[in-house]
Amino acid sequence: MMRFAILQFPASNCDQDCVHAIRVLGHQADYLWHKEESLGAVDAVIVPGGFSYGDYLRCGAIARFSPVMQAVRRFADGGGLVLGICNGFQILCEAGLLPGALIRNRSLQFRCEHIFLKTENRTTPFTVNIPEGRVLRLPIAHGEGCYFAEPETLAALEQNHRILWRYCNASGERTEGANPNGSLGNIAGICNERGNVAGLMPHPERACEPILGSDDGRLIFESVLSALNAGRAAA
Amino acid sequence: MKVSIIIMPKKAVLDPQGKTVQSALEHMGYDGVQDVRVGKYLEIEVKDGDPETVRARLDEAAHRFLSNPVIEDYRIEIG
Q1: CATH of A3-234, one of 2.170.150.70, 3.30.70.890, 3.40.50.880, 3.40.190.10
Q2: Looking at the partner chain, which of B17, B20, B71 has a beta carbon nearest the beta carbon of A148?
Q3: Would you say residue B25 has pLDDT above 90?
Q4: Considering only CB atoms, which chain A residues are within 8 Å of B68?
Q5: How far does the CA of residue B34 sit from the closest CA of chain A (Å)?
Q6: Over the stretch A14-34, which tens digit does the pLDDT of each residue have?
Q7: How many CB atoms lie within 10 A of CB A3?
Q8: Separation in Å, CA of B28 to nearest CA in chain A
Q9: Which bin fits A182, alpha (ψ -120 to 50), beta or left (φ > 0)?
Q10: In the predicted model, is pLDDT for residue A44 greater than 90?
């Protein structure tokens, strides 16, 4: 059984969904308060969605300085798997663990709906279980999900296959209409250079059971589990 | 002493808020508005001290925390 730490900041609100999703998959998930200075013996970390610190100043700007984030940085530096979802993605970008920034949706509207995702790199710990050509249907719920980065950063992301998911239509085509927030290049999720830290705006944890309208999110968590199992087998 | 920090979205960053305000101004009949960008203004009260030291400290804070250098520029005004 793998053990996941789910971070909790003041005003996190997807932490329970993440814990539920991991338990549905048959693994251990524990909450970890933002004041903790150590992660303990965990196999992976999830930085969940929400509105940490009221989204004051900028989304994720204050959360990145909490003690637990210093522990997450050490964990990531050691190769540990870290997944940031929605506000968690914003926190990882603010912390510099992922490049770029997430700014106000181009429409200025908070978007709460299901979108489609195309997986662009199926060799990472976050995507390895996603079948080729499979379009994922996941919910989004954000007002600041427009991915922005300098042209050089974008070029490096492209070149090194670090764009993991892009918004697409139901047939998997990347179109302007399928982009819910104005993200450059329809980018929905990316990973770091080493491939052990990833972030995405859509919510896979809200799509792990058929009763929720989609269980495509399982593929992302199952990818993480496959990667962890492979790591254990190799150790 | 009073320190003001003005944080603005970088020119290359889309500012949908500014665009919306601009179009509202146009609709209200305020002609000739060519561009609007919406930023943040912080008023900070600090203990009196050497202005250059204060500036250097707040410059560090603005770079590390108050602004995000990926998307924003800032300027500091003392007094």
Answers
A1: 3.40.50.880
A2: B71
A3: yes
A4: 58, 61, 94, 101
A5: 20
A6: 999 999 999 999 999 999 999
A7: 16
A8: 20
A9: left
A10: yes
The ipTM value here is 0.89
Residues of B numbered 18-77 whose beta carbons fall under 8 angstroms of chain A's beta carbons: which are they? 20, 65-66, 68, 70-71
Contact criterion met (CB below 8 Å) for A81 and A75: no
Q: Is A73 on the interface with B (CB under 8 A)?
A: no
From A51, A40, A50, A46, select the one nearest A20 (Cα to Cα).
Answer: A46
Q: What is the pLDDT of residue A235?
A: 77
The domain covering B2-78 belongs, at the CATH homologous superfamily level, to: Phosphoribosylformylglycinamidine synthase subunit PurS (3.30.1280.10)
| Nearest-neighbour CA in chain B from A33: distance (Å) | 22
Chain B CA closest to residue A181: B16
Stated length of chain B = 79
% of chain A at pLDDT higher than 70: 100
HSE-CB at A10 with a 13 A cutoff on CA atoms is 8
Q: Are strands B72-78 and B2-9 parallel, antiparallel or unpaired?
A: antiparallel
Q: Can you give the residue ranges of every domain in chain B?
A: 2-78
pLDDT of residue B62: 98
Give the residue from chain B lying closest to A103, CA to CA.
B71
Q: Is B13 on the interface with A (CB under 8 A)?
A: yes
